[in-house]
């Protein structure tokens, strides 16, 4: 296996472990054993856990960009694209009920750790917010596009948080329907609806 | 200082540290040094961090019950009481922007750790949900009281999560206004509004 492949394997394993267990609790040894690497080979790629975190955030940013670009390419109307975002909650419900939202829980953990990478992790939210705002603007809501983007992002975070605590898939479905109804009721150039 | 006072001091310090730093990252030594206790004196009260966690959850449940009872006693109308809940976001905005919601972030961390106390911590959410559902029922929405309770709890979680990542007090205020408008627009015996 090439050095680049090994590095990618490490980052993929760290991505999964940081999400499923948390960043702080995941040790170098956990990651090394997940990819079956010796300490020496591991250290050749990464010297510190913070370096791995940086690579994990970069990976998530790249994957998110790719996903949003794909939705932009395939979604006929801006509302379809926003619905693609809303439906992440259904698509990923099993993982969300077990581990929460990967973005929200990482940002929250890094905030508590007052970790140097916390602003970098928040760029994941900014990526979603800016993409959503672009869709709301294309929908004819230029004036309050960013507020609407933050509102729907807020609802997806809230659903993920309670889904983890209550393990209730029917709650997720009900709230996803509510988000779609809210979107449906939005009309160009009205004020923000609650 | 009496043994009971010392115990209370330990639990108060752990409560604060678990909230501000996270549960996993907080060590016995952190808590002992926060209350200026020797290891020996500390171990007299608590043998494991899980025991302290149990005491912290019990403390939070008791404090939450007391707060909800006080709102119930002073709030004239059910809608006033629900507004008291919504306004936690404003009242605690500085801490929320720094550390998130104490309930949501603890439940999320314990879920990732697959910690034995995760169901116990979820009782904090259940306490809020049941209290809110009681207010919505008193408001004349018996049929969907629990769904409405989950909806407003979801929104408060979503606001807390994004407030931590974006440090934007004006976003909190806007969403709190939106929650109050949503409540205002609710009428007895209508279906759940999105």
TrEMBL record, chains A, B:
The keyword Aminoacyl-tRNA synthetase does not apply. Keywords: DNA-binding, Transcription, Transcription regulation. InterPro entries: Homeodomain-like_sf, HTH_TetR, Tet_transcr_reg_TetR-rel_C_sf, YxaF_TetR_C. Coiled coil: none annotated. Residues 27-46 bind DNA. Residues 4-64 form the HTH tetR-type domain. It comes from the Bacteria. Pfam families: TetR_C_13_2, TetR_N. PANTHER family: HTH-TYPE TRANSCRIPTIONAL REGULATOR YJDC (PTHR47506:SF1), TRANSCRIPTIONAL REGULATORY PROTEIN (PTHR47506). This is TetR family transcriptional regulator.
């Amino acid at each position: 296996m090439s050095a680049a492949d090994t590095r990618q394997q490490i980052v993929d394993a760290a991505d999964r472990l940081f999400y499923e267990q948390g960043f702080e609790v995941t040790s170098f040894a956990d990651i090394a054993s997940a990819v079956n690497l010796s300490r020496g080979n591991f250290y050749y790629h990464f010297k510190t856990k913070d370096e791995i975190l940086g690579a994990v955030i970069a990976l998530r940013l790249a994957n998110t960009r790719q996903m949003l670009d794909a939705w932009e390419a395939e979604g006929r109307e801006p509302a379809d694209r926003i619905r693609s975002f809303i439906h992440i909650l259904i698509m990923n419900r099993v993982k969300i009920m077990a581990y929460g939202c990967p973005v929200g829980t990482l940002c929250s953990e890094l905030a508590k750790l007052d970790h140097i990478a916390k602003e970098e992790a928040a760029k994941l939210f900014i990526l979603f917010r800016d993409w959503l705002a672009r869709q709301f603007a294309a929908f004819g809501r230029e004036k309050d596009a960013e507020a609407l983007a933050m509102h729907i992002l807020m609802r997806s975070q809230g659903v993920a948080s309670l889904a983890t605590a209550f393990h209730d898939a029917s709650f997720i479905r009900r709230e996803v329907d509510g988000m779609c109804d809210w979107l449906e009721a939005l009309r160009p150039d009205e004020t923000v609806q609650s």
